[in-house]
Write a structure and sequence with these properties.
pseudouridine synthase activity; 304 residues; ten-stranded mixed sheet; Pseudouridine synthase; isomerase; 3 domains; three-stranded antiparallel sheet; alpha+beta
Length: 304
């Protein structure tokens, strides 16, 4: 059983009932129902009606005494993990380029999730979101399956934001900022690829030019949706393919894909407090960017 104790602090002098608070915390209705009928939600160690007003400094205890929606464990991996942030409930890992986020088969042990399985001593990893194998950067992972639906709702409500940096080839001119709103579907000629198609799923990417020269641009990118290969497809379609993209850039690949997930913003579960995790560029990524720009204005100093 997963148990969470939270000391409640009112924001903006709001007065919330227990029911309103659980809704604000994005706890699914089915779980709220189970909390109520099983008396598994307590205020100061006592079960009370869902219409009870929660006061400052009240201690809320949530006993998740029911099966989660998903329960999947992975074989232990072999590689160390670069931890950007960790607490009792979550871990944010800086994934290297060329490593899959998760295994495709239960017998595989060479993905990021396998490595995190090996790293965690008293918990298992549960995937919140993924990034492409060729992409490097931050990945948010839960240590309990009970947090996954909450983060899924944050993704849907846009309170979980993912920001990327990318170096693109300028086959066409690029405005200083903009929004790409083009639907993405399966490429009928290549099962590995996606493409812009009228009957695809809506996909929205916001971009801002940080540095550019005649041939390349360094972009800051924000996902408003999370389609497979979204950034790579959108940028290639606009005439700005990401450097070293083996699927969507016709130029010869000469190094790692220059796409890096550098920032995650989300709400800490059960508090509503905003959390921002930023990753420094690795030495090799920093050096690759410097090969195209003398002094990229956006990039953090690489790790020493």
């Amino acid at each position: 059983m997963y148990q969470k104790k939270i000391t409640y602090y009112s924001k903006h002098y709001e007065k919330l009932t227990l029911r309103q608070l659980l809704k604000k915390w994005l706890i699914p209705k089915k779980w709220q129902h189970l909390f109520r009928i099983q008396h598994d939600v307590l205020i100061n160690d006592i079960y009370q009606s869902f219409n009870t007003i929660v006061n400052d400094n009240d201690v809320i205890t949530l006993n998740f005494n029911f099966e989660p929606r998903t329960e999947q464990h992975y074989l232990p991996g072999h590689d160390p993990v670069d931890v950007a942030y960790e607490d009792d409930d979550i871990i944010v890992v800086n994934k290297q380029a060329g490593k899959k986020t998760h295994p495709n088969l239960k017998t595989e042990d060479d993905s990021l999730m396998n490595d995190v399985e090996n790293y965690l001593q008293n918990a298992h990893p549960y995937m919140v979101h993924r990034i492409d194998m060729e992409t490097s950067g931050l990945v948010l992972i839960a240590k309990t399956p009970y947090l996954v639906p909450i983060f899924n709702r944050q993704l849907s409500s846009k309170t979980l934001h993912r920001q990327y940096l990318a170096v693109v080839k300028l086959n066409l001119p690029i405005p200083n900022s903009g929004t790409i709103d083009l639907p993405i579907g399966q490429d009928p000629n290549d099962v590995r690829k996606r493409m812009i198609t009228d009957d695809g799923l809506r996909a929205i990417t916001e971009y801002e030019v940080i540095e550019k020269n005649n041939n390349f641009a360094l972009l800051k990118l924000n996902l408003q949706t999370g389609r497979t290969h979204q950034l790579r497809v959108h940028l290639s379609h606009m005439g700005w393919p990401i450097v070293n993209d083996p699927l969507y850039n016709s130029d010869s690949k000469n190094g790692k894909l220059l796409l890096f997930a550098d920032k995650l913003t989300f709400e800490e579960p059960f508090t509503g407090n905003s959390k921002i995790i930023e990753a420094k560029l690795s030495k090799d990524m920093y050096n690759l960017i410097c090969a195209y720009f003398k002094q990229p204005k956006s990039s953090s100093n690489p790790d020493n």
